[in-house]
From TrEMBL:
Domain Helicase ATP-binding: 16-186
Keyword Glycosyltransferase assigned: no
MF GO annotations: ATP binding; helicase activity
Alphabetic keyword roster: ATP-binding, Helicase, Hydrolase, Nucleotide-binding
Gene3D superfamilies: P-loop containing nucleotide triphosphate hydrolases (3.40.50.300), Tandem AAA-ATPase domain (3.40.50.10810)
Name used for this protein in its record: DEAD/DEAH box helicase
UniProt keyword ATP-binding present: yes
Amino acid sequence: MTRRAFTPHGYQRGIIDTIVDSPRCAIWAGMGMGKTVSTLTALDVLSLSEDVFPALVLAPLRVARSTWPEEAAKWLHLSGLNVMPIVGCEAERLAALGQDAQVYTTNYEQLPWLVEHWGERWPYRTVIADEATKLKGFRLRQGTERAKALGRVAHSKVNRFVALTGTPSPNGLQDLWGQAWFVDRGQRLGRTFDAFKQRWFTSHPSGFGITALPHAQAEIQAALADVCTTVDARDWFDLREPIVNNIVVDLPMKARKHYREMEREMFTQLEQHGVEALNAAAKTMKCLQIANGAAYVGEGNTDWEELHDAKLDALASIVEEAAGAPLLVAYHFKSDLARLQRAFRAGRVLDSDPRTIRDWNAGRIPMLFAHPASAGHGLNLQDGGHHLVYFSHWWNLEERLQILERVGPTRQKQAGHDRPVFVHNIIARDTVDELVIERVQTKREVQDILLDAMKRRGDRT
């Protein structure tokens, strides 16, 4: 990977300044706003004047394993920063702890193990909680095990703490106390959760749960203002264009072997028969299937073999970060749909039943699976959500744009929704996925892209 020069946007400078100036703080910024590179940049700046390393990043598994290390490897100014994931079985985690690095990353589920492993020798001067809503369940005398484990060291062993999330209160203002405690130990929102409730909440009329008092939101925001930076996409982006978030996944070794074999066969066939517009895309079908995680076998395209879950894991991470926001998920192959339905049971398929669209627009469907060809002109899906995930990729630009338009910026504005549209591309690295995205970005013909890809492969061998 060739490192690139980093020129921060204005909102990223705000994130960097907050982390540098505030030893304990929260950054509330949505997906695609550059929280990761901004945080790493702030740590790099701070390291010139204080001991911020080693730092520990807590994140969902895929993000800990791939996103943070890859982000550090992407930028020129971070070339001196080593990021080591602490993931896998216990032997692999112990081996990772023995490696020399400035930043270590692990998933939240490993917190109890990590805290017990180090005990009084806890070495991490800085802790970054990526997707800090996972700490919302913290309570002084109860709560989730992972939050309690972190609570034992958060204020006694950690000098700097940064909470990162795009959705700090997905289920209401009551989600904020647990997260804020790790920032200030209850100084701003109350020393205990009970004190927090008594000040800003009342019992729900149904008798179940609590509901915020009318003045609660404004007062809570004011209380956290000095330690929290909020980045609203509406203030920085042209809402007439979607915000694109590319999530790159790596194929496991076995799947990569299958892919390489199929790729060689594809290029051989293209060389033998020529690259014609009609058959060029068809020749890539098997490669795209493998990139997605399953490939059809035998005759008739009815049976398929599962090869990996990399894209499903990436989609699970998007679900976590979206924190309850409904997702429209575009797929291409029937095998993709079958696997999506198995992995995300609450999802529904966009079908001919008008109740499906009504339920989606009413917010009753958390994930809607749609084939771009079925999301034709005239469908109105904009009320149901503003996140579109391309799980599968295909060469047909018209179909791709067609499903985007169902929830796109124009329809959001027409419906009176003042919110950005997010497009999440799940892309398998070094596969035909990247060639399809190139076509999306350049509008070049399929056969021209494939010819260039063939030449690049030839130059490497």
